[in-house]
Amino acid sequence: MSVPSKKRVLDPKKKVEADSSSDDSSSDEDDYKGGEQIQVEFEGRIPVDSDFHGIKQLLQQLFLKTHLNISDLAELIIKQNYVGSVVKQCDDNPDSDDDDDDSMNVDDDVFGITTVINLTDKRSMGCVSQLRDLLKEHSSKHGDDRTIAKVKQLLDDETKCTGLLINERFVNIPPQVAVPLLMSLRKEMDKAKSRNMPFNFEYLILICKLYKVDSMKKKSKKNKNKPDEPAVIWSNAEEEVFEEVADCKFEFCVKDDSDSGLGGKWHEDDTEMTPWRKVLIFHASKLDEAIEKVTNLIQQ
């Protein structure tokens, strides 16, 4: 059931890189050539039914081809509308009534989602059970002994409330929006706890998207047997800060699950961006510290 689109206004006029070029072959040299910056205002809103497909698309780019019911997960996010926000472009109509469902445009794009899923309380749900199995499987394959034991402890002990922090958005949305979204989520979690709702987490888990860039240049004879350390690019820049507060972490390559078109023929001077996922596990008490670090990073 839809709820009124209560707005959680983000910092206005965030710059977004416009990485496109004119499709009109008849355009002259004075036309837009791409690579410019445009001013766009975003706002956080409570998830509603019409956001289903947008949320599902964002979840799909995070989980790719994993065995996970993305549709059910998107529905769960919408149902717990008292916690979490979707990112949308600000309504240009100042006369619109937030309490009028008819004023909502069902075709509004969802540019991001920030929320938390209770992996303990919702463990009987199919999609959450799949998430738990996914975390156990990947930690067993890619984590060290300490990480494997920690994941098993958190997911097998029903007395320990563990949450999955979801912080996903499209690549051209600036990291500045993360600060008000995370702060809003923190306040909503506190409010839910004060009402005895199951959001009193002991640990939080964050799945991050990143890319490793390997140089395709030929090595000299002197260094041909010495592999270069790949550069790491975080899809959401602020998530690198969360690694600083993580108790455990592990990562794995998702190149075979990705449809990002990274294949093809590469020249000697090209670089290849290989998609990875990094899973961060941190104590919930460190969320405030992480948000403060993100705020300082954005201000700099």
Automatic annotation (TrEMBL):
Composition skew (Basic and acidic residues), residue ranges: 8-18
InterPro entries assigned to the protein according to its UniProt record, in alphabetical order: BCP1_family
GO cellular component terms attached to this protein's record: nucleus
Biased composition (Acidic residues): 20-31
Highest taxon above the source species: Eukaryota
Region of interest (Disordered), ranges: 1-34
Protein family membership: Belongs to the BCP1 family.
Protein name: Protein BCCIP homolog
Native source organism of the sequence: Thrips palmi
